């Protein structure tokens, strides 16, 4: 049979381990930069928008309802939909602020 002569190098396990770990690190980096990081940025801009809302702002809810903010607390928003109707929503139900076109 074949025998290794003394002094010949055997394949190192650290090289095999490195060839296994490097692709995992590369995959994690790709997932981070393509999926996780953009989602965190989007969530941060949404939180900034929700924190910057004030009374009188015109907004649109997630359901598509347009209204003007009358009252606000930390988690509740009261909207005026028309001259008479007031509706109460969770602050997280606000989709975006409507910017008025400048005249």
From TrEMBL:
It comes from the Bacteria. It is a single-pass membrane protein. Keywords: Cell membrane, Membrane, Protein transport, Translocation, Transmembrane, Transmembrane helix, Transport. Its main location: membrane. It is found in: Cell membrane. The chain crosses the membrane at residues 17-36. InterPro entries: Preprotein_translocase_YajC. The keyword Protein transport applies. It holds the Pfam family YajC. Belongs to the YajC family. PANTHER family: SEC TRANSLOCON ACCESSORY COMPLEX SUBUNIT YAJC. This is Preprotein translocase subunit YajC.
């Amino acid at each position: 049979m074949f025998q290794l002569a003394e002094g010949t190098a055997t394949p190192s396990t650290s090289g095999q381990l490195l060839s296994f770990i490097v692709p995992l690190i590369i995959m994690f980096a790709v997932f981070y930069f393509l999926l996780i990081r953009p989602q965190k940025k989007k969530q941060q801009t949404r939180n900034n928008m929700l924190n910057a809302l004030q009374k009188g702002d015109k907004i649109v809810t997630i359901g598509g309802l347009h209204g003007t903010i009358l009252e606000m607390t930390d988690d509740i928003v009261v909207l005026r939909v028309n001259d008479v109707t007031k509706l109460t929503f969770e602050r997280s139900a606000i989709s975006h602020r409507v910017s008025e076109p400048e005249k």
